[in-house]
Design brief:
There is one protein chain. The chain is α/β, with parallel strands linked by helices and about 325 residues long. It has two domains: about 150 residues, Rossmann fold (3-Layer(aba) Sandwich), CATH 3.40.50.620; about 130 residues, Beta Barrel (Elongation Factor Tu (Ef-tu), domain 3). Helix content is about 30%, strand content about 25%. It contains nine helices and twelve strands. It has a six-stranded parallel sheet, with helices on both faces. The protein has a six-stranded antiparallel beta barrel with strand order 7-8-11-10-9-12. Strand 9 and strand 10 form a beta hairpin. Helix 5 crosses helix 6 and helix 7 packs antiparallel against helix 8. It is elongated and about 75 Å long. The relative contact order is 0.12.
């Protein structure tokens, strides 16, 4: 996949130009997969290359900064996910005030002139341009005037419909990570670095890695305990994570993300760590003693092992 920026221009292209689709593609969920499948079908029928047009930051960060949603994926994660679909080009635009003021017609004209977009495959309910309240037929007419064929992709109507990035965000924020995984077709992921924490876990038999240096725009699951798959040094391990304030240990008001990696005892401070959230276990609550906490963690671990063993078996 070749990545193009706003300053780039396609001078020549084999075939009949590009068939493209446009959107944020945050979370790369099943609706996105349906759209990209339709894009490939339309491109093949027209002997065109495929392109995804997306933005380095959410348009709401420009037009409504206070209401801008948290991201499901970092930009690098999104780029990797789009590349994995086999798309030929990624057109990565920086959504700024100048772009925000473009009408749909001017935006289509720019895509056609600069990037040789001759077919635009639109999501079934997608809108773009400063005049984004216009209907699909208007997009078609404006495209015809410019030499761009505008096609509507089918809606995802599978088992987990309806699916949207907004729905996925709501599921993650409420702790329903398994439902979010079903909507996306892959687990929600957090990536950070192992940093020093409170060092309480080892004393009760459950050593934890404290996850820090998270991207500031990424959404966090609701506070509580989760069964997770953990990647360190390129290898995956089973584990469980707690997001919260560790009330039983009275660690104050600093939010922590602490993962207990099962059957693991290596020094990983300062190393990158990746968590895949598979299922919610329980809310965080204060227990009466360290012994009760140890019993609860033992129960959480066994439940997590059962959940993760089942998840792994389904992936094979």
């Amino acid at each position: 996949m070749k990545i193009l920026n706003a300053s780039d221009c396609i001078e020549s292209l084999d075939g009949n130009g590009l068939a493209a689709t446009i959107g944020m593609f945050d979370g790369m969920h099943r609706g996105h997969a349906t759209l990209i499948k339709a894009l490939k079908t339309e491109a093949l029928a027209r002997d065109q290359h495929t392109a995804v047009i997306t933005f380095a930051r959410h348009p709401q960060q420009v037009v409504n900064p206070q209401g801008s949603p948290r991201a499901i994926m970092t930009l690098n994660e999104k780029i990797a996910a789009i590349a994995a679909t086999g798309i030929d080009y990624l057109i990565l635009l920086d959504f700024d005030q100048q772009l925000a003021q473009l009408t749909a017609s001017r935006f289509l004209e720019m895509l056609h002139r600069q990037f040789k977009v001759n077919t635009l495959v639109m999501g079934y309910n997608h809108r773009f341009g400063h005049d984004h309240n216009m209907g699909f037929d208007s997009y078609v007419k404006q495209g015809q005037a410019l030499g761009v064929e505008v096609v509507k992709a089918p809606e995802y109507l599978g088992k987990y419909a309806p699916v949207s990035s907004s729905i996925v965000r709501q599921l993650i924020a409420s702790g329903r990570v398994e439902d979010a995984m079903n909507c996306m077709g892959h687990p929600f992921e957090l990536e950070g670095t192992v940093v020093h924490g409170f060092h309480n876990g080892r004393g009760i038999g459950f050593p934890t890695a404290n996850v820090g240096n998270l991207h500031p725009d990424i959404i966090l699951p609701h506070n509580g305990a989760y069964a997770v798959m953990v990647q360190v040094d390129g290898l995956w391990h089973k584990g469980m994570v707690n997001i919260g304030y560790r009330p039983t240990l009275d660690n104050g008001h600093q939010l922590s993300i602490e993962v207990n990696i099962f059957d693991f005892d290596s020094d990983i401070y300062g190393k990158p760590i990746k968590l895949h959230f598979i299922r919610f276990l329980r809310l965080e609550f204060k227990l009466g003693s360290i012994e009760q906490l140890r019993e609860q963690l033992s129960h959480d671990k066994q439940l997590s092992i059962n959940i993760l063993d089942n998840y792994i078996s389904q992936q094979s």
